Amino acid sequence: MATVTGARPYVVVSAAMSVDGYLDDATPDRLLLSNDADFDRVDEVRATCDAILVGAETVRRDNPRLLIRSPARRAAREQPPLRVVLSRSGRLDPGAAVFGPGAPTVVYRGEPLPTVLDDLVSRGVRRLLVEGGGTVQAQFLTAGFVDELHLVVAPFFVGDPAAPRFAGPGRYPHGAADRMRLAEVRPIGDVVLIRYLLGPPDGD
């Protein structure tokens, strides 16, 4: 398992989307795109990482705890993954679940991604999981800071132009001329995991 690329952490982006590329619908309630077996797979990935990162909008909309759920996986670690939040304004509810017990939390307020990654390295983060949302994931992807991409595709359509989509317009380093390398395709119940490698071949 790769853990680091150069002077920054090894970055894994994880996303679940509909067949037509939506991360959610436009209703106030969270759209469940995955299933229990895949949630357990994500928990396993969390347990291999030193930090889990989301954007402020994900905190506001989904109120995630960003903790390892499995007691056995928690017990196998010396310390839990650091919880990381990116926020332009810093306006976050202090009662949000991400600030609850279970793991330390760091908030970066408007710092550029290279600065964030440098600071995470200084905190001992060698493997970083970026869970959301789509804007933050697109920032990592367009900056060329992603080594591995986990996409879970749910077997339905959303079709709402007001709903958030994965990635979006931007200049991505992995276009048709520089294709990502397919590492794995795995059915998990009624969803499909597609895992791509984006880093150099010697980082496999």
From TrEMBL:
Residue span, Bacterial bifunctional deaminase-reductase C-terminal domain: 9-193
Keyword Oxidoreductase belongs to the record: yes
UniProt keyword NADP present: yes
Pathway: Cofactor biosynthesis; riboflavin biosynthesis
Keyword tags: NADP, Oxidoreductase
Ranges in a coiled coil: none
The organism's place on the tree of life at top rank: Bacteria
A Pfam family matched in the record: RibD_C
Family annotation (PANTHER family): 2,5-DIAMINO-6-RIBOSYLAMINO-4(3H)-PYRIMIDINONE 5'-PHOSPHATE REDUCTASE, DIHYDROFOLATE REDUCTASE FAMILY PROTEIN (AFU_ORTHOLOGUE AFUA_8G06820)
Protein name from the UniProt record: Bacterial bifunctional deaminase-reductase C-terminal domain-containing protein
